[in-house]
Amino acid sequence: MDSYVHTRHPEEGPAIEMNAIAYDSPTADLDTSPLASQPVAHHDSISNHSENERLLDNDTLPRYAQTKFLSRYIPEADPNHERAQTFRVKMAKRSMMLYIQQGLAYTVVLANISFTIWAFAEHRPVRGIGTLMTGDCTVISRLNAGLHLLLNIVSSLFLGAGNYCMQILVAPSRAEIDAAHRKSNALDVGIPSFHNFRAIARARASLWLGIGITATALHLFWNSAIFASIPFTVFPVAIVTADFLTSVDDWSVTHPIPESSDYFDRRWSIYDLHLAGQGFTHLNNTQCIQQYLDPLNSTADLILVSKDTAEQNNGSSLLHGWISGSDFVHWQSATRWVCVAHEDYNWNHYCSQDDISQYADSWKVPSFNKTWAPIEYCLAGPSGNNAERCGFHYSAVILVLVCVLTLIESIFITWTAKRHDSPTMVTTGDAIAEFLKRPEHGNDTLLSSRTIQETRADTGMNTAVWRSRNNDIARWFHAVDGSSCSAGALLIGVVCFIQAVLFFRFQSLSISLPSLWRYGFGKVNPFGLVSGKLARAAGTAGLLSRILFANSFQLLVSLCYLFLNRLLTAQVATAELFRFLKKKKPLRVSSPEGMQRSSYMLSLPWRFAAPAVAAFILLHWLVSGSVFVVQTSAYSSGPDGQRIYKSDASRIGFSPIGILFAVCVGVVVLVVLISNSFRTYGDVPKSLVLFATNSREISTFCTPSSEDTDAWLFPVSFGIVSDSEGERVTFSSDVYLLHPLEGNREV
């Protein structure tokens, strides 16, 4: 119901348009115009009956909303009445919301601990990594993607519970605001704030810091508690002479593997090929190249037969031998020997089938003493099926760490609920309600015009002409100081994508959309791995370092969400305040009473919070498939290949299509934010928009009449109040309240 602005001064007479009291409540609209003609209910007390008769006989309906009057007709207007204690109101209380956050947090902790106990009992870890299942790579890939999506949702909900508590903890109390105001300082109200950190109580600051540290650690590790692995085969390779099958030389004598070799301990697997080769499968050069070019699909022992003879090699039929995959960390280079002999080969160039197939007839491979051996054909042993060897694993260290961190944060949440449930000004509505209930100079003292002017002079505010048109129009971006963090995050995403594009160009790979799609989202490719120092560390330390690197992008996304939340909160808080210029509205508070509205999300209404949370959950998932940890599980050669745990390795992989999708979502979020920022606040001067989150300025605009003591419980409006105490702009339930007019000197 729209408010009716009555322009008659109180001295003109008692005729009051009571439909100016319009209750913009989610439960009911109230029109009190017929109240003067309604009989008093028979069950009212005698005293109430007499009071109502006196009011009606004298035609002196109250100018301000009063609980003692309105509760006779609407019991819910009295916050202490049993009918006001509805389920919705109880659920919206800050204490109840904290209990819900506790329940959510401990549910996640219980699930984490239960899963960890089950995993350790049923799938004991080896070298810090447990294998939950091994099987078809397509099934494992889908399972990994689905469970990581679920994990992102659960972790977002859990971290959201911690963020809820952090907002309560960093929000200032009335005593802290009063202390800041006495020093002529202002605190932030209604937005996540680092500015308030030094002003709040030390215990709350420590708790806020504790939740922040545990949340940061969880961002860095949680997403990698479970992960998939791809199979990688370690197998012997020998380059032999054309007459090796008839040669009787002993390779261990005629061509001993030097002790300095990385594969000295496995030298006998090379020597054994001398006899085993008689039962191997014959492959021509083209077939051999196709089978062994991809290191992830090479699973059989291999003999490369050259055109040389043993006589040309000092009586030895073995020209050279090595273990493919002995450098298990750089496994993507395990089969580069296929291409290195050709003059145009570049080590930074990914060797594809098209590149090497043209050399099949004149194919050469590196041999002993930096010579090249021309290959006539190949002999391949029995192959294994790597398509059935993918694994789904957990990290024992990270699972335990996640259990400990979630338990610690849950304890912090409980501590917040039990020890820090005292009123703090979390929303702008909380601050307005508090200052209307207890104005800075006390509601027992009449606020004289002199006192009001002194208060406003102290905040640096003076009267000015109300102008809101042409160049002075206020837009949403005027309520904030820019979006540098989001722009910076987007820049990082664009840089990552450009680097990936340049990488693929350098590797002579196609970057067309069909090709990018073929490379796959979250799919491991030998050419999609990060090299350098991050590729050298091994063992648990290597895994943790790569997890930290991969998940640092998750932390970046979370920081961007916090900034966007702060940005949007400031804009929405300002928009909500200026809606009070149009009609009376109930205050949106963290613990509603009377006709006040609830605020489940604290900083943002659901219509803004839900899309923002959904967008960033999607972004977290896309980032997890864009930059990720690649774990390889090493096997020996053949169809019955055995696990070689000491040759397992971890690397950083990236997916160009995933990076593209993540950047696109980031661009959409930024475009929506910028577009939304061009909305206007209506007929409001842009010089006024920054007061919505400033405690001193909010206090200045909360100077109600000494009779308007219950305004904080009822719908109020923002405008000009003129009474015996002077004329001022304030929040009030006054039915005579006037709105500022264009060109008038008001604020």
From TrEMBL:
Residues 32-57 are annotated as: Disordered. The keyword Chloroplast does not apply. Residues 41-57 have a biased composition (Basic and acidic residues). Residues 97-245 form the DUF6536 domain. The chain crosses the membrane at residues 98-120, 140-159, 205-222, 392-415, 485-506, 553-578, 608-632, 652-674. Coiled coil: none annotated. InterPro entries: DUF6536. Keywords: Membrane, Transmembrane, Transmembrane helix. It holds the Pfam family DUF6536. The keyword Manganese does not apply. This is DUF6536 domain-containing protein. The lineage of its organism: Eukaryota, Fungi, Dikarya, Ascomycota, Pezizomycotina.
